[in-house]
Design brief:
Shape: elongated
Strand order of the largest sheet: 3-2-1-4-5
Strand content: 5-15%
Oligomer: single chain
Number of helices: 11
CATH topology of the largest domain: Nucleotidyltransferase, domain 5
Structural class: alpha/beta
Number of domains: 3
CATH architecture of the largest domain: 2-Layer Sandwich
Order of helices and strands: HHHHHHHEEEHEHEHHEE
Radius of gyration: 42 Å
Largest sheet: 5 strands, mixed
CATH class of the largest domain: Alpha Beta
């Protein structure tokens, strides 16, 4: 009796399973037919179709027998992709993870990397530690600016490193009250925009210019290179003097004042800030005016190229130490402001 019952149970079980299998197979075939009926040159599977086959793959062992329009490996790939997305969502949902590096630190790392192209991640990481910023070296590597190989310094750095060995010379003319013309010779050091020497004469000869160079660079103070134009006043005597003191001349192209920009800008400043506002009486008067202006230029006038400092350096006076007092310079054309205790 027990045997008969077991046979009946197995029959009923196989019958039920067969019907379920048949129904699943019909569902699978119908779904593929629906896909093929879409009006496209090639059947396109939508995300819902992929979810259907992944679900059927988990539910029905014989799903491969009913699959026609795609390969079984494709369905397995969909399942793995869904597995990764599911666990990615589950691991990130409600859990912020490691704290993100602040914007200020990221910008500081990028700034250090840009300003120091020869530095690697260890150097920048060490500098950050000295500033009390505790980040990993891997974080520094992640946010560093990528430089070309090999890294190159900036043009500003290159020029700053050569400023100390450069000087420029040039002439400019000043009319007098009697309609005469005076020539002003200027020698400018590039490093601190300092005027090393100036001379005034109505007749600039090669011997006179050579003497001005000797007065501008006594002993061993001459620069390595001297930039000048092709003025006829730089004759044989001048060239011999320059060669004797060990200076190499850099001659600009004809009619190219932009190749000697620092001294040209200086001459423009002298005109706009001083000589355009006075009438020069004679050579002695012009010397006195230029001495007054150059004292203001070196000690009081701030320069953009020197980070708003003066060529001779000017100390910053802290707030609250006294009243602000104005001191006239260049006969009142300009003023210098200082704090003086009451």
């Amino acid at each position: 009796m027990q045997t008969i019952v077991m046979i009946l149970v197995a029959f009923v079980r196989n019958f039920v399973l067969s019907r379920a299998t048949l129904q699943l197979e019909n569902i699978a075939l119908r779904q593929q037919v629906a896909v093929l009926k879409r009006e496209r040159p090639r059947p396109q599977l939508r995300p819902l179709d992929r979810v259907f086959w992944v679900f059927l793959y988990r539910l029905w062992p014989r799903w491969k027998d009913a699959l026609v329009i795609v390969k079984p490996e494709t369905v397995i790939g969909w399942h793995r992709q869904g597995f990764r997305l599911f666990w990615k969502w589950k691991s990130c949902h409600g859990k912020p993870g490691r704290p993100r590096t602040s914007k200020e630190i990221r910008e500081l790392i990028q700034r250090m990397s840009r300003e120091n192209p020869l530095w690697g991640a260890p150097r920048i990481h060490g500098e950050l530690l000295m500033l009390g910023i505790d980040v990993s070296q891997a974080t520094v590597t992640r946010y560093m600016v990528r430089h070309p190989k090999p890294p190159s310094q900036t043009w500003r750095t290159f020029l700053d490193n050569h400023m100390g060995c450069l000087a420029s010379i040039d002439f400019f003319v000043v009319p007098t009250a009697t309609f005469a013309v005076l020539f002003v010779f200027i020698v400018l050091r590039h490093e601190r925009r300092r005027i090393e020497h100036f001379g005034v004469t109505p007749h600039p000869t090669a011997d006179w210019v050579a003497q001005q160079i000797r007065e501008a660079f006594p002993w061993d103070s001459a620069p390595r290179y001297l930039i000048r134009d092709r003025d006829g006043a730089y004759g044989h005597s001048f060239r011999s003097t320059v060669m004797a003191i060990g200076v190499e001349e850099v001659i600009t192209a004809p009619r190219s004042p932009w190749q000697n920009p620092y001294v040209e800008r200086l001459i423009g400043s002298v005109r706009r800030e001083c000589l355009d506002h006075v009438i020069v009486l004679n050579e002695r008067h012009l010397r006195r005016i230029l001495v007054s202006y150059l004292d203001y230029y070196h000690r009081s006038r701030t320069h953009l190229s020197l980070d708003k400092d003066t060529p001779e350096g000017r100390s910053v006076q802290p707030d609250g130490i006294g009243k602000i007092v104005a001191f006239p310079r260049v006969g009142g054309l300009h003023h210098r402001y200082e704090r003086r205790a009451a």
